[in-house]
Write a structure and sequence with these properties.
α5 links the parallel β9 and β10. The protein contains 12 helices and 10 strands. The protein has 2 domains: 179 residues, 3-Layer(aba) Sandwich (Rossmann fold); 121 residues, N-(1-d-carboxylethyl)-l-norvaline Dehydrogenase, domain 2 (Orthogonal Bundle). α6 crosses α9, α6 runs parallel beside α10 and α11 packs across α12. Strands 1, 2, 3, 4, 5, 6, 7, 8, 9 and 10 form a 10-stranded mixed sheet that branches. It starts with a strand and ends in a 13-residue tail after the last helix. It is of the alpha/beta class. This is 2-dehydropantoate 2-reductase. Catalyzes the NADPH-dependent reduction of ketopantoate into pantoic acid. Its EC number is 1.1.1.169.
């Protein structure tokens, strides 16, 4: 299978390298120091499941350099989605299936606004991975899973392209499954991610502190309940006890775990806040669902969205 991976960071770098090792023709789109390092020495993935190395010629600087693809995996930061979607149109019109592995629930709406609707498949990933240094991706732990599937009426029938991608994941040693209700899967992950990112970033402490303090624990639960309520208002079939179940899951996480948004906040980097609690606040307003906790988080963290302002200590 010809696979283009747009964004060779932790997510794209890891899954793309696994698929390449499984025999697929994988092309990575990268930029900056990461691009130059891969060009010089290839892409290295360090993982408890076995290290990998992808040859330097597997990377290109722009989507236009990808001649053709059967599948495109989108793994860029959410603020780059619209720009990437516009550039992907020739590949999508050429028959490529586009699968976003990004966080958030509006990513596929953005893709469909610029691409043929039939080209977009839903997807989520479960992994802890990051760029350790230019040219090197570090995978933490053993979790590495993809879930993908068709949207709407197309999900009711077997999908040849989803089945083909599932087969390639199996050949690469990537845990994967095809979902008949991928929108629900996306929202289930979103509810948890919004809670983890909002609570750890607003409190500026990892999950152990957040869940162990009554006030911040309540914040975590309320943020997730609001996100789930918005999803239900949009017609997504979310279990009424989803937020409570996700809170119980948070109790099983390593105490030092925090969302990537909290890491970005500490480093002074740009935040995905508008696509997380910000998206819950915006959707809640559109749908008439009260979301005061998410709105408060979005307001509190708003000065840091574009990075830590000069003279401010995050």
């Amino acid at each position: 299978m010809r696979i283009a991976v747009v964004g060779a960071g932790g997510v794209g770098g890891y899954f793309g390298a696994r698929l390449a090792a499984g025999g697929d023709e994988v092309t990575f789109v990268a930029r900056g120091a990461h691009l130059e390092a891969i060009r010089a020495g290839g892409l290295t993935v360090r993982s408890p499941l076995g290290d990998l190395r992808v040859a330097p010629d597997a990377v290109v600087p722009t989507i236009a350099d990808v001649e053709a693809a059967d599948v495109v995996l989108v793994a860029v930061k959410l603020w780059d989605t619209e720009d990437v979607a516009r550039q992907l149109r020739p590949l999508a019109e050429g028959g490529a299936a586009v699968v976003s592995l990004q966080n958030g629930v509006r990513k596929d709406d953005v893709l469909r606004a610029h691409l043929p609707e039939s080209s977009v498949m839903g997807g989520v990933c479960y992994i802890s991975a990051f760029i350790e240094e230019p040219g090197v991706v570090r995978h933490n732990g053993s979790l590495q899973k993809l879930v993908f599937g068709e949207f709407g009426a197309r999900a009711a029938e077997p999908s040849l392209r989803a089945g083909a991608l599932l087969d390639r994941c199996a050949a690469a040693g990537v845990e994967a499954e095809v979902s008949a209700d991928v929108e629900r899967v996306i929202w289930e992950k979103f509810v948890f991610l919004v809670g983890l990112s909002a609570a750890t970033s607003a409190v500026r402490q990892p999950i152990g502190v957040v869940r162990g303090t009554p006030g911040s624990r309540a914040l975590l639960l309320d943020v997730m309940r609001e996100a789930a309520a918005v999803g239900r208002a949009r017609g997504v079939d979310l279990d009424p006890g989803l937020a409570d179940e996700r809170l119980a899951f948070c109790d099983t996480l390593p105490a030092g775990m925090a969302a990537s948004m909290f890491t970005d906040l500490r480093r002074g980097n740009r935040l995905e806040l508008p696509w997380l609690s910000g998206a819950v606040a915006e959707l809640g307003g559109e749908l008439g669902v009260p979301v005061p906790r998410n709105q408060a988080v979005a307001d509190i963290l708003s000065p840091y969205v574009m990075g830590t302002p000069a003279g401010i200590d995050a």
